[in-house]
Design a protein that fits this description.
Layout: H1 2-19, H2 24-54, H3 63-74, H4 82-97, H5 116-139, H6 150-159, H7 171-190, H8 203-225, E1 230-233, E2 252-255, H9 262-286, H10 288-293, H11 297-309, H12 331-354
Antiparallel strand pairs: 1-2
Length: 356
Amino acid sequence: MKILDSFFDAYDSARKRLSGKSSPSDESKGWIAKAIPTALMLYLVIVLVLGFLWDSEPNSIDPVKHATELSGLRGEDMITGYITTTALITTAETLLNKRGGYLSNDKLPPGVFMDNIPNWEFGVLTQIRDLTLALRNDITRSQSQSVEDKDIIEADNKFRIDSESWLLPSAESQYRKGINSLYKYLGRLADKDAQNAQFYARADNLAVWLELASKRLGSLSQRLSASVGQVRINTDLAGDTAAHQSTPTAAMLEVKTPWLEIDNIFYEARGSAWALSHLFKAAESDFQDVLRKKNALVSLQQIIRELDATQDTLWSPFILNGGGFGMFANHSLVMANYISRANAAAIDLQQLLKQG
């Protein structure tokens, strides 16, 4: 009987092979082979959709309205410096909590393939760092010999971490700690019984912050203008016959932004202008008395107006790089125009604030 059973088993196996029928294991392998391409295609679609959704800049923020709402929630008075500090906090929180979150240090798709929004984030981060530095060195101190504010020191240190750090520690974790330190400073600032936190809304303090902002705007303007090749006269030592520099440079310099970096600089400038506009709108309230005394309120409003113009809707899906007077637009040159005008207004405002 065992011999017959073996014979019939061999016969059935041979018949199945000849008839082209698969075994259960073959069928499972075929199902897996079909499922893998489908899963990869589904993953690709999800990545593309997320990349499209995340590739958007946040809306504008009303710093005065937001500070009013925050003071109501926390039960605090909107004393001098409250609006500017709140605007700084809100700007940093928007950097982390916008659609898609913080993308500059992403190591997985779609964030790792995106560059427009990460460059926008770096522009925003630059303005956050500059204002925090101005708070640490000048605005929270009555004079050069006074003690730095402990929470502002902590915030400044946390915001200085590499923007692309993703592990031990991640940039987001450090930035959130910096935001928490700003909240602590804000609470002490609004506490009338605590006199160890101050915000000195003086003309010289505003001038120091404006000088930092002006240097950033000037650099961005030059980098944006270099989207088309330019030959520039070297003015590094102009105005001082005794001046020297470390390494000699040519009298004529040819400057041109690499093609792949044009959109990066454009979005960095756009992010920087977005953040600076909100922070200056807040400063317009906190420094209002100083600005009115100097008859300089309209000068700050002019800076804000030029910065807001950089936030107009970009209708083209690409950053175009046409010639200066060519048939096609050059978005970098348009951005450079607004940035340069804002910088010129910032320089004029500095001069007004320094006058007696």
